[in-house]
Amino acid sequence: MKLQGGGVARRTPGCDIASVSDWNERNLFMKAAAINSFGGPEVVELLDVETPEAGPGQVRVRVKAAGIQPFDCAIRRGLTIPGQPTGFPRTIGNDFAGVVDQVGEGAVGIQIGSDVIGWALLASHAEYVVVPTDQLVTKPASMPWEVAGAFSASAQTAHTAIEQLKVGAGDTLLVHAAAGGVGTVAVQVAKSYGAMVIGTAAPRNHDYLRSIGALPVAYGEGLVERVRGIAPEGVTAALDGIGGAALDASIELVRDRQRIGTITDFDRSEELGILAISTQRSTTRLTALTSLYEQGRLHIEISRSIPLSRAAEAHREMEGGHVRGKIALVVD
């Protein structure tokens, strides 16, 4: 089979991971989570694909851990990205952390053996990934691999949102789905900027929200009244990670619609006159976030660490809708 972009792919034989590694001829092939058709979590397979080589200006990273996002599940279900290969099989995953093991010609500033965090569109759920140097930053020594692997995408989305909503000292920010991957970081970044934060979540996550600095409220019927009870002087900005009723509540609570943003319900954003927020990734942004982590001002909870060989299980759990913090895929 041909991998998207021209590489060879084949299914892993029915044996354990140790024997699979032995089966890969002289490291010409690596393991990757990929799909051969659109569908449910069951279409995610562990395939053997050609190990990439670092080209000019690129480095190759031996992946230690990677994150999984709702975006990855959308790709699996059939979302297509302009400019990306459309054939099968296709790999999944967008953020990772690992150790540089190959440096291409002209790639400067990063050495073999460096521990790094980065992003690579539709390539990260694999043993190796090749990226340009401007998609990598140094991993803090204090950051566990599982946290580092699941850090880049959600953290940069949250930081982008707080920036575009112009959240700062004196603001009261409402974060919907505040216990999720993006919400967790948005709460803490907004707090670091001096804002008061109200976060919606199921009651079982309220203690967790308090631990990261948010005032928790239960979502569902009566949300607007509960938020007004906590913030009688009003809410100045809102970040939506759910869509639907969460956006309706935000419209009632926030006067300036340009200070309401959604990362999920893009179909309604133009109709409502609110911001449709997409991640603006950069090493500058990612470095600022890793610095917050090193300072102890940003905590990332990993709800589960799942081996790459069970990536379908990670998709299933992500779509269950009750993940607190992040799920990490761990590469042996």
**Number of DSSP strand runs:** 17
CATH superfamily of the largest domain: Medium-chain alcohol dehydrogenases, catalytic domain
How much of the sequence is in beta strands? Answer: 25-35%
**What is the CATH domain class of the largest domain?**
Alpha Beta
CATH architecture of the largest domain: Alpha-Beta Complex
**Rg (CA only):** 20 Å
The poorly predicted ranges are 1-8, 12-21
What shape does the CA trace take? globular
pLDDT average, as an integer? 91
Number of domains: 2
Q: Helical proportion?
A: 25-40%
Structural class: alpha/beta
- CATH domain topology of the largest domain: Quinone Oxidoreductase, Chain A, domain 1
What distance separates the N and C termini? 25 Å
- Major beta-sheet overview: 7 strands, mixed
Number of helices: 11
In short:
This protein is α/β, with parallel strands linked by helices and 332 residues long. It folds into two domains: 9-78 and 87-151 and 300-330, Alpha-Beta Complex (Quinone Oxidoreductase, Chain A, domain 1), CATH 3.90.180; 154-276, NAD(P)-binding Rossmann-like Domain (Rossmann fold, 3-Layer(aba) Sandwich), CATH 3.40.50.
List keywords for this structure.
332 residues; alpha/beta; Quinone Oxidoreductase, Chain A, domain 1; Rossmann fold; 2 domains; seven-stranded mixed β-sheet; six-stranded parallel β-sheet; 17 strands; disordered N terminus
